[in-house]
Amino acid sequence: MAGDSKFAIYAAAAGNMAIAVSKFVAFLFTGSSAMLTEAVHSLVDTGNQGLLLLGLKRAARPPDPGHPFGHGMELYFWSFVVALMIFALGGAFSIYEGFLRVFRPEPMVSPWINFLVLGLAIGFEGTSFLVAFREHRRRHGGRGRFLSSIKSSKDPSLFAVLLEDAGALVGLLMAFAGVAASSLLGFHAADGIASIGIGLLLILIATFMANETRSLLTGEAASAEIVADVRTILEGDPRVVQVIEVLSLHLGPEEILVGVTIDFDDNLPGGGVEDAASELSARIQAAQPAITRLFLRPGEKVGEGRKVAPAVA
After folding, report:
1. Residue 173 and residue 35: Cα distance in Å, rounded?
2. What is the maximal distance between C-alpha atoms in the chain?
3. E strands of the chain, at which residues?
4. What phi and psi values does residue 202 have, to the nearest 5 degrees?
5. pLDDT tens sequence across 76-99
């Protein structure tokens, strides 16, 4: 899974670097504010992809005494940094530059260069978006709406690229409209208005990404489907009287910790609870490989509370 995410990130980084250079060249020739903000946008996106790759590398480190459950959550941290970068460097700069051009509009020089670069950029960004979108749909089985599937995703390295590329495509259309209105209609303030629109779009994307990664950083549960599968496996075993509690926590995109409290049959022979716990653990992890840590403990409900014995891993 991580390899698939890396491929999408490398594709996005390569496209964004080429686009950033072409946009900066176009800005130097034409003086377009929208092109400058788009160039900064692409440059920030390229840096963000580098941060996501750093997050993937650090998250892949094995457990150690200081981090016994591994470093998977580092990816969530670096994804949050990416959201801040989009907000501060992309969105804020675009709005600032846009206001400057709205109050001091200037005619463009050789606007055809902007149209050429924007057309090429749409092609590059569209290709990058398709790569990330196909991988995202493959993981989610082609089900659900776009934003809903992103909200349910536990891999910020993938949905960050997807959102960046989607935002880039919309931003390019805004820039195209601003350049067209300025060069063809003589409404030179449209260039700055497009920059402001791009900045607001980036801030919206950054806010959405920050909220999603915040949820993951603060301990998001596994999907309802995974939890239901765990319950089904446990409840289907005749040695289990009742599944009292199933708690889960994502330690990384493909690393889930699960803690289960079970009321076992009191008539199990000596050592029967340990045997049942071992067999059920193996069965659950075979059905859901993303569950890398599983803790089972026997217990029984007592009134509104419950009585539990020490955990059996």
Report:
1. 12
2. 88
3. 240-252, 255-264, 291-302, 305-308
4. -65, -40
5. 998 888 888 888 778 888 888 888
